[in-house]
């Protein structure tokens, strides 16, 4: 609920009770931002209909008579019919303007010249630079990197040194070492120290 004083939405309910006619709920609210107090009335569609019928009955006739209900409904329908006629009139005003806009757009589209095709010259195949076989850089796998470090140390290398040289995590190095030792690529010199089989 928006505060009428500061426009903030954060409000709290202080008091809540039904109205005397039992047609709505009266709530006393306080704004949490500016502390301003105001009253709201909340009603369901049924309660609102009852209130309208009561005000209509107040002009003459009782609430219990069917004549009052029928006269209320006919007056309400007349009001709705008048509103509908007004809306139809508004729509009719905009319809010719839309047609004119569409026609103008269609004319503009016809006058726009077609885009010229740009011809691009075909280039010959790019010359590849041939690198001799000995100079080609091979990408090593993670296992290959670890094995290369192990081959560089003839007496063997431990896990901390492997971690430092490769930058891999402890678990990754252990997994590579386990796989390589199963395949027979490396051997265990002593606990935590490995050397190459070749």
Q: What does this protein look like?
A:
The protein has three domains: 1-43; 46-109, no CATH class; 141-196, Winged helix-like DNA-binding domain superfamily/Winged helix DNA-binding domain (Arc Repressor Mutant, subunit A, Orthogonal Bundle). The chain has helices at 45-58, 66-111, 142-151, 159-166, 170-183, and strands at 11-18, 25-31, 37-42, 157-158, 186-190, 193-196. The mean pLDDT is 75. The strands form two sheets. Strands 1-2-3 form a three-stranded antiparallel sheet, with no helix packed on it. It has a three-stranded antiparallel sheet with strand order 4-6-5. It is elongated and about 110 Å long. The chain has five helices and six strands.
Question: How is this structure best summarized?
Answer:
The model has no long low-confidence stretch (mean pLDDT 75).
Question: Can you give keywords for this protein?
Answer:
198 residues; alpha+beta; Arc Repressor Mutant, subunit A; 3 domains; three-stranded antiparallel beta sheet; 5 helices; 46% helix; elongated
């Amino acid at each position: 609920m928006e505060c009428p004083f500061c426009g903030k939405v954060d409000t709290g309910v202080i008091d809540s009770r039904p109205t005397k006619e039992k047609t709505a709920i009266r709530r006393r609210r306080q704004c949490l931002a500016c502390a301003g107090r105001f009253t709201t009335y909340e009603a369901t569609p049924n309660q609102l209909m009852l209130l309208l019928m009561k005000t209509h009955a107040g002009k003459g006739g009782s609430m219990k008579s069917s004549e009052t209900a029928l006269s209320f409904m006919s007056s309400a329908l007349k009001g709705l019919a008048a509103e509908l006629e007004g809306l139809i009139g508004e729509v009719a005003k905009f319809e010719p303007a839309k047609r004119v806009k569409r026609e103008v757009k269609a004319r503009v589209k016809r006058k726009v010249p077609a885009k010229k095709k740009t011809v691009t010259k075909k280039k010959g195949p790019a010359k590849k630079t041939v690198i001799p076989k000995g100079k080609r850089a091979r990408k090593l796998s993670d296992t290959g990197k670890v094995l290369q470090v192990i081959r560089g140390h003839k007496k063997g290398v431990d896990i901390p040194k492997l971690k430092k040289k490769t930058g891999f995590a402890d678990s990754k190095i252990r997994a590579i070492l386990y796989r390589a030792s199963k395949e027979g690529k490396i051997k265990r010199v002593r606990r935590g120290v490995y050397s190459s089989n070749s």
